[in-house]
C-alpha cells in the first residue's frame, strides 16, 4: 500500500487537527496540522491560478519529451531555508499536482539558474531574504512565475483552504532532488510519491517514530535525508517536526528546550557539537535515537559521538538516488561494529556486494582482510532516473539494481565497511589505494585537524597519494611526520608521498569532501 505524500498531511489534519505539526523555535512559532494543511491548500490554489497547468498531466500521462517525469506535472522550485514556509511550499506543490525541486539556499545565482533550467521549473517559491539571488537566477532561466514568502499571508487570506484532488498518482514524480555535484554538475534525481512514501514509512519503522514524537531537523531540508527521512517520516507517523539551522551549540540547546526525541545529522554535526566544553550541562535525555548518515564516519568518530551524547545510536547508509534508503547499523551492533554501515538492507531494501562483473562477493573471498566490491541495492524507493540524462541513468540502474558507486569491504561476519567512492579510488603501480582508509588513519594524527586524500598523476606509478591537511592550531606536521605515523598502520604503497596544507577542506552541507575542488587545485587536471 502506498499514498500520495500530501495525503499524509491531509490525514493528520483530520486526525490530529490541534496537535503540533511544525515548531520553529527561532521565532517561537507553532503550526498545527490543521493550519499547515490550510496554508498548503491556499498556496496550492494560487499555483493553480498562475495558469501553469499543474494538473494537466493527470494520472500517469506523459507529454513528449526526454527523461523520467517529463509532462507528469510542472516543476516548481523552492529556495527557502529551514523555515515553516519551506514545509508549506513543499506540500502545496504536491497538492497542486506539481513536482517539488528544492534548491540549496547557499548556491550562487548562476548555480540556482542552472537547476531552474535543467529541471525546467516553471515557477520559484523563494524566501524574501534571498530575493537578491532569486531574481537574477529567474531572469537568466526565464522563469516567469515567482512567489515570495512575503506573499504568503496575503495568499492565505485570499485563497480557499480546502483539500482538492491533485490529479496525480503514486507513481508520478513528487520531487527532483539535485545531487551535491561533488564530481561535476549536479544531476536531478527523480523520486515518485511512492518512493518518498517508502522512505518515510521505512524510517518511521526503523527509528521507531510514533505519533507525539518530536523530530529535530537542523540539516538543510533541500537534502534528501532531512526531507524524506524526517519530514515525510514525521508526516507518516503524525509526529511533530522541529526546524532550525545547525550551529554546534544550537543542537543541544534545542534538544533540551524542545525535548526532541529524534535527531538526524551528518557526522560533522556530532563531531562539532561533541567538542562543546559545556555539552554535559544540557539535558539530552529526551532523545530516543541519535541518527547519522550522509557521509562516512570512522569508528573513532562514532565512539567519540557516543561518549559525548549517550543514548541509542543508529546509522543509515543511503544516497539520494535511493531516496535515501539502504543499510542500517543498529544501536546494539555499535559496540563491536561501529564504523561499519551494517550487514543488510533495511526493512524494504535488498542489498548486495558485487564485483565488476556483477558477481556476488562473499565473506572470506580475500581472507581475514575481507573482499571489496560495489554496493548495489533495490527497493521501492529507488529513483526513476536522472532528469533528462538517460545515459547517466543507464550507468547506475541495471536490471532493476541501483549501482551506488561505493566500494565496501565485506568482513568475516558479513558487515560492510565503506572504503571509498569507486571514482575516487587511486591506482598506484597497479595496486588499489582507498583514500578513505588513508584519511581515517591520518585523521588520528595528533597534529591534524582535517584531511583529504586523493590521487595525482605520477610518471612511473600512474598515480601517487597526496594528503591535503588542515593542521591543528599552532601545529606544523611535515610529510615525514605523516609517513612515520602511517608506517605502523598502513602498507607502504598506501602512504602519502605528497602533502599540501590548506586552511580548510572544502565540504558540502552533508559533510562530504568536495574532491573535485581539490583536484582542480592540486590534481593537475585529473579527471573525475
Would you mind describing this structure in some detail?
The two termini are 41 Å apart. 30% of the residues lie in helices and 24% in strands. About 3% of the residues have low confidence. The chain contains 16 helices and 25 strands. The strands form six sheets. It has an eight-stranded mixed sheet, sandwiched between helices. Strands 15, 16, 18, 19 and 20 form a five-stranded antiparallel sheet that branches. A hairpin with a 4-residue loop joins strand 1 and strand 2. With 528 residues, the chain is of the alpha/beta class. Helix 2 packs across helix 3, helix 2 packs across helix 6 and helix 7 crosses helix 8.
With strands numbered from the N-terminus, the spatial order across the biggest sheet is 2-1-10-9-11-12-13-14
Sum up the overall morphology in one term: globular
Q: Find the structural class using helix and strand composition.
A: alpha/beta
Q: What fraction, in percent, of the residue positions are helical?
A: 25-40%
Q: What fraction of the residues are assigned to beta strands by DSSP?
A: 15-25%
Report the biggest beta sheet as strand number plus sense, adding barrel if it closes: 8 strands, mixed
The pLDDT mean sits at 90
Q: Low-confidence segments, ≥5 residues, pLDDT <50? A: 56-72
Radius of gyration of CA atoms, rounded to a whole number: 23 Å
What's the number of helices? 16
Oligomerization category of the chains in this entry: single chain
How many β strands by DSSP?
A: 25
Distance between the termini: 41 Å
Amino acid at each position: 500500500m502506498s499514498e500520495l505524500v500530501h495525503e499524509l498531511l491531509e490525514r493528520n489534519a483530520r486526525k490530529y487537527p490541534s496537535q503540533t505539526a511544525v515548531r520553529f523555535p527561532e521565532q517561537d512559532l507553532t503550526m498545527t496540522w490543521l493550519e499547515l494543511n490550510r496554508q498548503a491548500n491556499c498556496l496550492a490554489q494560487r499555483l493553480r491560478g498562475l495558469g501553469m497547468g499543474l494538473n494537466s498531466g493527470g494520472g500517469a500521462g506523459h507529454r513528449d519529451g526526454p527523461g523520467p517525469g517529463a509532462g507528469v506535472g510542472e516543476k516548481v522550485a523552492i529556495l527557502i531555508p529551514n523555515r515553516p514556509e519551506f514545509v508549506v511550499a513543499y506540500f502545496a506543490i504536491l497538492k497542486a499536482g506539481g513536482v517539488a525541486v528544492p534548491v540549496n539556499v547557499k548556491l550562487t545565482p548562476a548555480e540556482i539558474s542552472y537547476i531552474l533550467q535543467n529541471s525546467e521549473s516553471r515557477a520559484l517559491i523563494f524566501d524574501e531574504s534571498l530575493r537578491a539571488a532569486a531574481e537574477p537566477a529567474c531572469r537568466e532561466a526565464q522563469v516567469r512565475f515567482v512567489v515570495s514568502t512575503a506573499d504568503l499571508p496575503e495568499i492565505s487570506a485570499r485563497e480557499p483552504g480546502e483539500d482538492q484532488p491533485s490529479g496525480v498518482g503514486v507513481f508520478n514524480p513528487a520531487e527532483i532532488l539535485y545531487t551535491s555535484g561533488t564530481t561535476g554538475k549536479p544531476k536531478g534525481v527523480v523520486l515518485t510519491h511512492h518512493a518518498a512514501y517508502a522512505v518515510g514509512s521505512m524510517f518511521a519503522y526503523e527509528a521507531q517514530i510514533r505519533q507525539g514524537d518530536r523530530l529535530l531537523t537542523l540539516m538543510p531540508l533541500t537534502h534528501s535525508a532531512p526531507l524524506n527521512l524526517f519530514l515525510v517520516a514525521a508526516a507518516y507517523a503524525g509526529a511533530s517536526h522541529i526546524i532550525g539551522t545547525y550551529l554546534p551549540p544550537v543542537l543541544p540547546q534545542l534538544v533540551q528546550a524542545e525535548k526532541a526525541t529524534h535527531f538526524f545529522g551528518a557526522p560533522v554535526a556530532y563531531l562539532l557539537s561533541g567538542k562543546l566544553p559545556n555539552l554535559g550541562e544540557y539535558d539530552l535525555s529526551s532523545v530516543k535515537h541519535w541518527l547519522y548518515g550522509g557521509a562516512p564516519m570512522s569508528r573513532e568518530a562514532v565512539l567519540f559521538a557516543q561518549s559525548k551524547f549517550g543514548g541509542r545510536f543508529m546509522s543509515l547508509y543511503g544516497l539520494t538516488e535511493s531516496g535515501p534508503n539502504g543499510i542500517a547499523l543498529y544501536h546494539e551492533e555499535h559496540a563491536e561494529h561501529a564504523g561499519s554501515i551494517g550487514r543488510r538492507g533495511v526493512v524494504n531494501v535488498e542489498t548486495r556486494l558485487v564485483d565488476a562483473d556483477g558477481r556476488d562477493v562473499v565473506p572470506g573471498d580475500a581472507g581475514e582482510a575481507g573482499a571489496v566490491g560495489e554496493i548495489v541495492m533495490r527497493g521501492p524507493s529507488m529513483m526513476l532516473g536522472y532528469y533528462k540524462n538517460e545515459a547517466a541513468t543507464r550507468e547506475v540502474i541495471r536490471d532493476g539494481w541501483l549501482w551506488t558507486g561505493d566500494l565496501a569491504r565485506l568482513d568475516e561476519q558479513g558487515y560492510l565497511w565503506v572504503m571509498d567512492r569507486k571514482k575516487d579510488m587511486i591506482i598506484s603501480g597497479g595496486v588499489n589505494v582507498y583514500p578513505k582508509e588513508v584519511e581515517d588513519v591520518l585523521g588520528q594524527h595528533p597534529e591534524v585537524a582535517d584531511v583529504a586524500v586523493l590521487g595525482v598523476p605520477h610518471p612511473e606509478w600512474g598515480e601517487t597519494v597526496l594528503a591535503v591537511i588542515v593542521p591543528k592550531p599552532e601545529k606544523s606536521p611535515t610529510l615525514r611526520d605523516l609517513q612515520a605515523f602511517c608506517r605502523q598502520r598502513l602498507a607502504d604503497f598506501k602512504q602519502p608521498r605528497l602533502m599540501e596544507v590548506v586552511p580548510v577542506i572544502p565540504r558540502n552541507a552533508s559533510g562530504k569532501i568536495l574532491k573535485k575542488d581539490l583536484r582542480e587545485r592540486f590534481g593537475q587536471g585529473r579527471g573525475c
